[in-house]
Amino acid sequence: MVTIRNGPSYDSKSPSWWLRYLPQLISIFFVIAVSFYGGMLVGMHLNVSDGSHSKATSASISADIEKQVEREVQRRMKLIKPSSENDINEGSNKKKDKTKNSHRFPDTVQKFVTGIALVSKNDFLASFDYGIPKPPSKREHESDPGKDDVLILYGGKTALPNAHNKDATMYVHDSVSEPPHFSAQEATANCGGLNVIFTDTHDGLDQCLAIVGNYESYHIQRWLRIDTHRSGSKLDLKMPLAPVGRGLQTNGMDKFSAPEDSHMLQNQALLRTYFDQLDETIHVLKPMAQSCAGDDNTVIVMVCNTGQSDLLINFVCSAESRGFGDIVREKVLLFATDQGMLDIALGLGMKAFYNEKMPEKEAGRYGDKAFTQMMYAKVVSVQLINALGHDVLFQDVDLVWYKNPLPFFHNKSNPLYDFDMFFQDDGARSLRYAPYSANTGFYYVRNNLKTKFLFRALLYQGDMVLSMTSHQQALAALLDEHSSLTGLRVKTLSGVDFPGGYHYHRKKEIDFMKDIVTGKHVPFLMHMSWTTNKDNKLLFLKQMGLWYVNEQCESGGGVDEAKKLSEGSMLDSACCSVQPLISCHFRDKPSIIPCDDSKMIDAKGKPFW
Q: Is 225 a residue whose pLDDT tops 50?
């Protein structure tokens, strides 16, 4: 590291200032001494000489002595001069360097920011994978214009990288002001710690980012120009900046408002039931979970009522057709929320736990009362199996496997193996799902103290689930908090391998969906999320070639078929088709065959084929 100085110092208060002039003082003393002794010699010679000879000799000797003194002085000055000139030149050069190079940051911030560098975002995220996804339409290697680089600030000189141009992290050279680029490993080689901030702008907000050297916080303090005293107030640039919560949007909608007292009372009642029945529940559930866990200690948890039973039947039938039937029957533990669903599950040869407190009808739409109650059941089911010491693969019933996903999570050579939880990418990038955009319809949980703590917290904060009408939003908030608090490692999975409704419905993913339906790309599954109701889910699955349920078992018909079963017979013989039952419904949605004669469902839809 180069230290920039301002040239020689002449501070007379310094105790060693005279050392700088020592060579000159010695030379002067030498000249005086030579002159003195030379004079004495001349005098002595004059005393022993006579007349004109003495005068001539004296003149000659004096001339010789003067020449000798002059030569010695010149020799001494030559020895001194280079040192003196070097000091002058060094000071001049340093002064010149100072005019060329200036610190990027002033002394007022030197204790928390000394230098700056840039690193490619793809390189950085590959090196330091915190599990947070890129935009859903961007693949891991693709560019993200305007956000392709990561800005690194160094908190001290010893943290600066070991690189040939590391001075550029601290100084601006001539007219070149852009910070230097390094690889992720070079840039962080001397960082004893690394705090990473993920930030973005929403709704065209003119956003500023302030870094304050102070008592460290692991949360973002958020301010908006909005009237916080008036509900529904929108962004107003005439207002002063005011502190707000993370869920307040510029349109005035607050996605993380505190639960009402009614939600608190409802959650108390649910928790009372939970703890009153806990011992009995564990007694029944424990041997069932152990039976499902097997050698890999993984239980596949699903929750379903009669209203969604045809989707569950389709999952089982499709698994049977694709060669996963034995795995599904061995590993799935179904939490049935009504007697009819229990009968169907047993008829399919599944292990099922029955809770008579939950609704029988399917949710009419996302967020209604039946949907919210089902969300609560999904929280309890995972929490219980996790508490019993098992890994959990939770999945909704509206998906189909192309490949068995379990080996992906069990493979210890997988670079992602050390993560505690894995979620399908929901695709949404709204504030309420930040930062993981975790889809709670397909996720994997490793059993450890961190995940147990997380799901206990989610259970006890059921009033947040009830107020937000979705456990997805509540869980998203807790994932962010626990990743910071306990170091919980959460990974959002690539949509290429785990696609869902975002990919199915977005026009920019048409080519990707064509690769799937033509068999060019085979993902692990297709999850029909981002769909408002069950009826449309069925239609989309049918034209994708992912529907295997005979008509008599649709719309709750599986209950009647289950009642007809004789002892030892299986429901799949009546409900399951060996081949997919393909039918067209919308020509502007992905389909395994052209559906040119079908109507469009989207207002500005375009034919898929």
A: yes
Encode pLDDT of 73-122 as tens digits.
666 565 554 444 444 454 444 444 444 568 889 999 999 999 999 999 99
What is the per-residue pLDDT across 334-381, written as a single tens digit (0 to 9) for each?
999 999 999 999 999 999 999 765 544 444 444 445 555 677 789 999
Report which DSSP code applies to 6.
-
3-state secondary structure of 119: strand
Q: Using the Cα atoms of residue 123, residue 129, residue 134 and residue 137 in order, give the sign of their dihedral.
A: positive
> Among 307, 14, 515, 205, which residue's Cα sits nearest to residue 222?
205
Count of beta carbons in the 10 Å neighbourhood of residue 167: 16
Say whether 600 sits in a helix, a strand or coil. Answer: coil
- Closest Cα partner for 108 from 189, 211, 226, 27? 211
3-state secondary structure of 278: helix
Helix (H) or strand (E) holding 58: helix 51-100
- What the block records as the tokens of 89 is 């030149």
Helices (H), 101-140: 121-127
Alpha-carbon distance of 187 to 487, in angstroms, equals: 23
Please tell me the distance from the alpha carbon of residue 315 to that of residue 601, in angstroms, as a whole number.
25
Coil, helix or strand for 26? helix
Whether residue 410 has pLDDT greater than 70: yes
Annotate 443-492 with three-state secondary structure: EEECCCHHHHHHHHHHHHCHHHHHHHCCHHHHHHHHHHHHHHHCCCCEEE
Q: How far apart are CA 397 and CA 527, in angstroms?
A: 9
Sign of CA dihedral 430, 431, 437, 440: negative
Residue 298: count of CB within 10 angstroms of its CB? 22
Token reading at 396: 């909704």
Asked whether the beta carbons of 361 and 307 are under 8 A apart, the reply is yes
Strands 399-401 and 115-120, by their bridges, are unpaired
Tokens encoding 219: 């949360």
Backbone torsion region of residue 141, taken as left when φ is above 0, otherwise alpha when ψ lies between -120 and 50, otherwise beta: alpha
- Give dist(CA 285, CA 296) in Å, integer: 18
How many angstroms separate the CA atoms of 285 and 301, rounded? 12
Q: How confident is the model at residue 60 (pLDDT cuts 50, 70, 90)?
A: low
Instruction: Point out which residues pair with 601 in neighbouring strands.
Output: none
| H/E run at residue 16 | none
Please compute the mean of the pLDDT values over residues 186-215 and round it to a whole number: 91
169 is written with which tokens? 């992290």
What is the pairing mode between strands 438-445 and 421-425? antiparallel
CB atoms within 10 A of CB 515: 15
- The distance from CA 75 to its chain's CA centroid, rounded to whole angstroms, is 71
> Token digits for 129?
């994978």
Cβ-in-10-Å burial (0-12, 13-18, 19+) of 130 comes to: middle
What string of H, E and C letters represents the secondary structure of 337-399? Answer: CCHHHHHHHHHCCCEEEECCCCCCCCCCCCCCHHHHHHHHHHHHHHHHHHHCCCEEEEECCCE
Prediction pTM value: 0.81
- Name the 3-class secondary structure at 562: helix
Question: Of 454, 495, 493, whose CA–CA distance to 476 is shortest?
Answer: 454
- Nearest Cα to Cα of residue 311 among 533, 511, 15, 159: 533
